[in-house]
Amino acid sequence: MAKKPKKQQQSGGTPATVALTAAGVEFTVHAYDHDPAHPSYGEEAAEAMGVSPDRVFKTLVADVDGTLTVAVVPVAGSLDLKALAAAVGGKRAAMADPTLAERTTGYVRGGISPLGQRKRLPTVLDDSAEAHATICVSAGRRGLEVELSPTDLADLTKAVLAPVGRA
Fold it and tell me: 116 near 104, Cβ under 8 Å?
């Protein structure tokens, strides 16, 4: 019996860009040379693209009362774990084990995208995103970002908008 060929991703895309294309959402891909020595993936992306750090958002995975939850916050700040727990009706939140986050999302740390994850997780988008016409998030690989409207990101990830970022 012949094996079925594996599905190929469209033109070398990541699961995130494939999901955006399939959804018919308007987006722009930004690629840059990732420097493994840079201390911050998000700040590196902002610098490389020449975009204000308040428009570049990082994807973090936390454990809220035993449920892995995605937080999307500006790279210029940090995640307020208490606010994240409250946003999803939980009591306690802690950063997830990086290996578990990678295995669950299908992405590597520094390249975790809120889009096209292996398993859909509850997602919270910091409400500061609403102040921008477009924001940038990881496209699923270090050195690759997608720019899209925060409304489209929230719709595609079924995200709750809440103040979960701290300056």
Answer: no
Provide the β-strand partners of residue 7.
none
Q: Are 108 and 68 in contact (CB under 8 A)?
A: no
Reduced to 3 states (helix: H, G, I; strand: E, B; else coil), residue 111 is: coil
Q: How far is residue 163's CA from residue 165's CA, in Å, rounded to a whole number?
A: 6
Between CA 30 and CA 43 the distance in angstroms is 14
Q: What is the pLDDT of residue 38?
A: 83
Q: What is the C-alpha end-to-end distance of the chain, expressed in Å?
A: 58
- Answer for the pair 71, 161: CB distance below 8 angstroms, yes or no: no
- Is the model more confident about 164 or about 35? 164
Strand (E) or helix (H) holding 146: strand 144-148
* Tokens 């939980």 sit on residue: 90
pTM (2 d.p.): 0.90
Q: What is the dihedral of CA 25, 154, 69, 101, to 10 degrees?
A: 20
Question: Each residue of 101-148: pLDDT tens digit?
Answer: 999 999 999 899 999 999 999 999 999 999 999 999 999 999 999 999
